[in-house]
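STRUCTURE REQUEST FORM
Protein name: RCK C-terminal domain-containing protein
Source organism: hydrothermal vent metagenome
Requested output: structure tokens
Priority: standard
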Amino acid sequence: MNNFVQVGVIGLGKFGLEFGRQLAAQGVNVLGIDNREANIKEARHVFTQVYKASATQKEALLQMGMGDLSHVLVSVGDSIAASAMISMYLKELGVPVVWVKAINQDHAKLLKKIGVDDVFMPERMAARQLANRITIPGFIDYFPFNEEIVVKEIKINSWAGRSLRELNLTNKYRIQVIAVKKNQAKDYVLVPQADEKLAVDDLLVVIGEINSLAQIEP
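Status: completed
Returned output:
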């Protein structure tokens, strides 16, 4: 990871701390802000730099260098007003990418109007992902920018003996195959050959809209 990438985290509760921990483990410089001593103490061993301060003051954000960062995550608990104010200040300071944790749909709408780049609700995302493991066999993950687009693993049965070119999944269903694992093989092969014949129990990793994936019978 490029050591010149610098990410800010405002709000060092469980989510903010774990987010910073994952980035730091990949060599990213992480700057954290929180006004609670207990959170500061724990983050100090993980983050590149930590400030104990209120992030609801634009001047404070400026002095702590938040305007110089490429990405900032705002995760300040249940205060809609605080997260909205902080997000607005970050955009005014010129932060290119601002992510914000929302607590409900109305909060998310407000943040979008402010100009936040990505709004997410971790609990909702986790619950929906778990439910989809039951309702969408082979479900792997969501496409980051649209919850109606998913990555899914499918096992070949009726498509055996046909090639991806013959199946023409992209034009018929707007589904893209991103990897294949041949029966008995150890690893997946990325970007499989279009003319290679599929066999029973081969596995395909595909990306597409939930409704489109529900139409196929592989």
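Reviewer notes: The radius of gyration is 22 Å. The first strand starts at residue 6 and ends at 10.
Form closed.
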